[in-house]
């Protein structure tokens, strides 16, 4: 006999699975995600994935491209997000500093945060150089370790935790052609250097570098990334660019601490 507790547990599991699928679908951005990849990344069997997707489509949370048969985030999720237009206070306070950095180095600057097992790009500012490397869009969600921002965020965590997060993402990383050991090696290198550097970026002929924005306690609020044509992150410019990035990260962290302190004083007043 099924009890109320059993039904409650089953309902909670269904909700968790549906949200996990939504996160995986979100990784596809405008390209969408194939059903077979959703199965591999989620670890769920095809009937379960298909049933959840069917319900999510009915609710407008997911849609399927008629031509490619790929699944994409639906309009309902976007509309729900409008209810919290101030949901990224870090972006609000960081934007002027990111714009200044983009002007100083001339290349594209990104702001990313960690959310669970993922890194998410929440801001982007372009510089004045004629060729801007727009490697990812705002809103892109990737498994931690895919891209320099995720590597920089992992490198700032306790090594045991960063290993667990990467290993948990093994199926998703496999779909993207990445190996757990390779990601962990990049994280270790970034931990030693204090930054993550990809001499060969996501796009041919490009490069990228990222470093964390650290609170006074050493926790990462997010990561600042600069992407550019490879020659613009060659040794003769690399030191200048990373120095400006560190100044920007420190300024954002100081402003964040200042606002947090002011907020705490208002609460206790």
From TrEMBL:
<dbReference type="InterPro" id="IPR036390">
    <property type="entry name" value="WH_DNA-bd_sf"/>
</dbReference>
<protein>
    <submittedName>
        <fullName>IclR family transcriptional regulator</fullName>
    </submittedName>
</protein>
<keyword id="KW-0238">DNA-binding</keyword>
<feature type="domain" description="HTH iclR-type">
    <location>
        <begin position="12"/>
        <end position="75"/>
    </location>
</feature>
<dbReference type="InterPro" id="IPR050707">
    <property type="entry name" value="HTH_MetabolicPath_Reg"/>
</dbReference>
<dbReference type="InterPro" id="IPR029016">
    <property type="entry name" value="GAF-like_dom_sf"/>
</dbReference>
<dbReference type="Pfam" id="PF09339">
    <property type="entry name" value="HTH_IclR"/>
</dbReference>
<dbReference type="GO" id="GO:0045892">
    <property type="term" value="P:negative regulation of DNA-templated transcription"/>
</dbReference>
<dbReference type="GO" id="GO:0003677">
    <property type="term" value="F:DNA binding"/>
</dbReference>
<dbReference type="Pfam" id="PF01614">
    <property type="entry name" value="IclR_C"/>
</dbReference>
<dbReference type="InterPro" id="IPR036388">
    <property type="entry name" value="WH-like_DNA-bd_sf"/>
</dbReference>
<keyword id="KW-0804">Transcription</keyword>
<dbReference type="GO" id="GO:0003700">
    <property type="term" value="F:DNA-binding transcription factor activity"/>
</dbReference>
<feature type="domain" description="IclR-ED">
    <location>
        <begin position="76"/>
        <end position="258"/>
    </location>
</feature>
<dbReference type="InterPro" id="IPR014757">
    <property type="entry name" value="Tscrpt_reg_IclR_C"/>
</dbReference>
<dbReference type="InterPro" id="IPR005471">
    <property type="entry name" value="Tscrpt_reg_IclR_N"/>
</dbReference>
<keyword id="KW-0805">Transcription regulation</keyword>
């Amino acid at each position: 006999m099924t009890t109320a507790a059993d039904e409650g547990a089953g309902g909670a599991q269904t909700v968790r699975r549906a949200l996990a699928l939504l996160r995986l679908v979100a990784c596809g951005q405008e390209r969408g995600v194939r059903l077979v990849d959703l199965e591999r990344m989620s670890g769920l069997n095809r009937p379960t994935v298909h049933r959840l997707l069917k319900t999510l489509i009915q609710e407008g949370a997911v849609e399927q491209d008629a031509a490619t048969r790929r699944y994409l985030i639906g309009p309902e999720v976007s509309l729900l997000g409008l209810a919290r237009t101030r949901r990224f206070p870090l972006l609000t306070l960081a934007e002027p500093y990111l714009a200044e950095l983009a002007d100083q180095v001339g290349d594209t600057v990104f702001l990313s945060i960690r959310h669970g097992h993922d890194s998410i790009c929440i801001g982007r500012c372009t510089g004045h150089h004629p060729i801007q490397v727009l490697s990812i869009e705002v809103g892109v969600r990737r498994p931690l370790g895919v891209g320099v921002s995720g590597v920089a965020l992992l490198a700032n965590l306790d090594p045991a935790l960063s290993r667990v997060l990467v290993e948990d993402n093994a199926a998703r990383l496999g779909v993207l052609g990445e190996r757990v050991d390779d990601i962990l090696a990049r994280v270790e290198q970034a931990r030693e250097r204090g930054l993550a550097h990809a001499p060969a970026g996501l796009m041919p002929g490009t490069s990228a570098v990222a470093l964390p924005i650290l609170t006074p306690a050493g926790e990462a609020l997010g990561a600042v990334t600069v992407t550019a044509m490879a020659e613009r992150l060659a040794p003769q410019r690399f030191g200048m660019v990373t120095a400006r990035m560190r100044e920007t990260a420190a300024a954002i962290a100081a402003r964040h601490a200042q606002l947090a302190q002011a907020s705490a004083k208002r609460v206790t007043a």
